[in-house]
């Protein structure tokens, strides 16, 4: 049995929907379908999720949001019309949209989460309508009926363990496809809470684990996961097979094809993931598998990273005489709920590397002030133009010379590498470089290992 | 004005003492002398400090220690005799030794500290006696008279800031050398507390700063600080000039010529340090200077490290989603007062590197148990055969290709480098390797940069 998740661009309009429908039709093993919200149909288009955010904000501002409802409904209606579905058969979608503001929400955040979730929720309903219209028996299963229970923040929820007990009770029948909305679950109190953005991937993985799928097919708009960003490297090699932990490292470091947190249920259930292109379902795509029994065929699997980082450098003489020095720094970061990426530490020096997205408002100044007051470093410097380059590969583990080859390739191009972090994970090396060198660095490392 | 500190081997017997005396005599600028305790005269000999520890243990065990006193006194007496000092003129040394057990000590640790400190204290007295006997006007100045105030542990004290106010009141006269004992100070309550082992270097640096010396001459038993350990690399290059922070990095990583903590007062007072050989005072030795205005003439200054490390590896999926994950690990380490050397961290992985000397008793098991209980990692592994290689040089900063050159040299010898830590300090790179590769690694990096 296969769980198939379709991304937003794969369900953006009737034509794309048709690809998805054909994919579902073509394999009777594809019995569990997970929908995203309709994405952009063309450059400059608005995703349905963003329309729903507008709708929520209108309601929160005391407006009626009628025109936005019309705009949202038109998106679903157009897809239905593409398949010849009668307007009366999709009318319920409009009614649900109009009823949304009338429900009770414990807070504005929960209202926002519920509105956003309807991009997926209504698309799953529509998919069931379309499939049944085309003679393919299908049933919409809401996240509540499925028993997807979540806890945590309304916009960054975590799946609760009981979800898997609930999913175990779902009966699959050979003659019926089940259509689940991605992206959200219900709190124990019955409120909708969403996963992080891109969270339909997470729902798919949860279902794949909970329903014991043989494979989790993740249909998106690229032929495969590539060894490097195609915006930087021309025609990069597709990755045929990679391990869960390679995917995890790469997706943390900027590979956005698969939602980062979607891997955990797949790992726990040991369900392999097949990333495929909705437009070219005949291509093999990328298979993500367990590292147990995996034999790497190349040294490097992928090159990730990004130019959006910053570093805080701190020097204090005899810092390492105090056991609690780094601890005090971490406590300051925790007080500000500030997540960091890496923290290379030396005898008297610490560098803390942040994703710039984490550095909102004047948090850098605040943290610097507190470090100054509590730790009194001899030097405290902030670097705003940091890029991180992460090179990942199961083939690196225990193999001498890989770091040397990467650094030599960069040195040949005169790229200075102020930071190297290797050793936590055996299958990756993380380099800090100047933002201006980032694209060149990705290119030369790619050239070195893939040409 | 120069502050001259003589190490234990430089004052081990009459012949070595004579070198020191000649050094003092030959330069009228050498007006402040700091003594260590007499060291080993030959392989298999016992240092006076170790005899004093034996003496203290005998007293603590309720014995009288008379034979050990005779043995200790014989060492000082023999040096006096070498210069023709009459026995009655050194008799006070024996009296002081015999009086030691009769004093009050707040604890066994303070008794031990006071006994140990007398290796230096009596040697400073003897030096004053010898110099005066030879017609060189000299005066013994006890740490109490000098006002060296310390706080902290009795065997690992820290100098108090008021010391520098006290030292500022000392008047130096052109016609008189002042002889200070190294290694210890007095607590505010009047008890002797020592610095860490090798702490005479610290006293010398404190005096050099407090008395505004032009240079702090540190006389020891090597011609210079070498770019690599002579026990591993044959005839390594002497380092002519290096910066304080290079010395700090190298001494933290195993260069034992200069006591690690001795650098701080020198840096604070901006007093350059000249490490010289008592046996060859004509050689220039190694000059350690401020990094301000320093222009490196080579890429690498020194290669340090050692084979005595261990690593704890921890993997927990989605570890980085929690801000406080590393914090919890550090709290566990702090609870056990366990100092670590480095902690490379990745997305879901942390490696913590310890000096094995820190891992006493069953502390590793205890820490692992607590990490298991509090953090529940997916993997927790301990590696006992870790070596650290540290390559240091002001010439590395901002220079592309240095890491590449180091790693390529190692790769050529098929040495696998599981850990690389670069970026906290700009002037060093730290590599983790297998213990078995350590000597070879030092040799090939040395060959690469110094041949």
What coarse outline of chain A follows from CA principal-axis ratios?
globular
Distance between the termini of chain A: 38 Å
Strand order of the largest sheet of chain A: 3-6-2-1-9-11-12-10
* Name of the CATH homologous superfamily of the largest domain in chain A: Acetylglutamate kinase-like
CATH class of the largest domain in chain A: Alpha Beta
Number of strands of chain A: 17
Helicity range of chain A: 25-40%
- Oligomer type: homodimer
Mind summarizing the main beta sheet of chain A? 8 strands, mixed
* CATH fold-level topology of the largest domain in chain A: Carbamate kinase
Mean pLDDT of chain A: 93
Largest interface: A-B, 64 and 64 residues
Radius of gyration of chain A: 24 Å
Number of helices of chain A: 14
- Which regions of chain A contain 5 or more consecutive residues with pLDDT less than 50? none
Strand content of chain A: 15-25%
Whole-number total of structural domains of chain A: 2
Looking at the overall shape, the CATH architecture of the largest domain in chain A is 3-Layer(aba) Sandwich
Describe this structure in words.
The structure is a homodimer. The first copy, chain A, is an alpha/beta fold and about 450 residues long. Chain A has two domains: about 290 residues, 3-Layer(aba) Sandwich (Carbamate kinase), CATH 3.40.1160.10; about 150 residues, VC0802-like (2-Layer Sandwich). The first copy, chain A, contains 14 helices and 17 strands. An eight-stranded mixed sheet of chain A has the order 3-6-2-1-9-11-12-10, with helices on both faces. In chain A, α4 packs antiparallel against α5, α8 packs parallel to α10 and α11 packs antiparallel against α12. The longest helix of chain A has 26 residues. Chain A is globular and about 75 Å long. The mean pLDDT of chain A is about 95. The interface between A and B is large, with 64 and 64 residues. Chains A, B: One of its GO terms (biological process) is homoserine biosynthetic process.
């Amino acid at each position: 049995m296969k769980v198939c998740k379709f991304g937003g661009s794969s369900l953006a309009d009737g034509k794309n929907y048709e690809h998805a429908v054909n994919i579902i039709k073509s394999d009777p093993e594809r019995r569990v379908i997970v929908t995203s919200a309709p994405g952009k149909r063309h450059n400059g288009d608005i995703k349905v999720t963003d329309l729903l955010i507008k709708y929520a904000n209108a309601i929160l501002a005391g407006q009626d949001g009628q025109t936005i409802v019309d705009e949202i409904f038109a998106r679903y209606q157009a897809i239905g019309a593409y398949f010849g579905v009668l307007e009366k058969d999709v009318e319920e979608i409009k009614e649900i949209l109009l009823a949304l503001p009338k429900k009770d929400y414990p807070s504005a955040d929960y209202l926002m989460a519920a509105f956003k979730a309807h991009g997926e929720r209504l698309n799953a309903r529509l998919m069931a309508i379309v499939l049944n219209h085309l003679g393919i028996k299908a049933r919409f299963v809401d996240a509540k009926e499925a028993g997807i229970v979540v806890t945590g923040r309304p916009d960054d929820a975590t799946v609760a363990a009981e979800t898997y007990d609930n999913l175990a009770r779902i009966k699959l029948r050979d003659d019926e496809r089940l259509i689940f909305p991605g992206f959200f679950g219900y709190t124990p109190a019955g409120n909708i809470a969403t996963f992080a953005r891109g969270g339909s991937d997470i729902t798919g993985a949860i279902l794949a684990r909970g329903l014991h799928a043989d494979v989790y097919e993740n249909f998106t708009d690229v032929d495969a996961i590539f060894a490097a960003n195609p915006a930087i490297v021309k025609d990069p090699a597709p990755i045929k097979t990679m391990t869960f932990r390679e995917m995890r490292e790469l997706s943390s470091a900027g590979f956005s094809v698969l939602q980062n947190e979607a891997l955990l249920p797949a790992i726990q259930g040991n369900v392999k993931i097949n990333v495929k292109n909705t437009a070219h379902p005949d291509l093999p795509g990328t298979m993500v598998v367990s590292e147990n029994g995996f034999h790497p065929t190349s040294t490097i699997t992928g090159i990730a990273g990004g130019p959006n980082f910053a570093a805080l450098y701190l020097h204090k003489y005899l810092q390492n005489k105090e056991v609690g020095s780094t601890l005090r720094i971490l406590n300051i970061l925790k007080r500000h709920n500030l997540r960091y990426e890496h923290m290379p530490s030396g005898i008297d020096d610490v560098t803390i590397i942040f994703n710039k997205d984490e550095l909102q408002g004047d948090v850098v100044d605040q943290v610097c002030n507190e470090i100054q007051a509590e730790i009194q470093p001899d030097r405290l410097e902030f670097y705003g133009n940091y890029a991180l380059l992460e090179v990942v590969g199961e083939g690196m583990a225990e193999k001498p010379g890989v770091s040397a080859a990467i650094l030599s390739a960069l040195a040949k191009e005169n790229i200075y590498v102020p930071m190297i972090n290797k050793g936590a994970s055996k299958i990756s090396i993380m380099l800090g470089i100047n933002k201006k060198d980032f694209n060149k660095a990705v290119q030369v490392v790619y050239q070195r290992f893939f040409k």
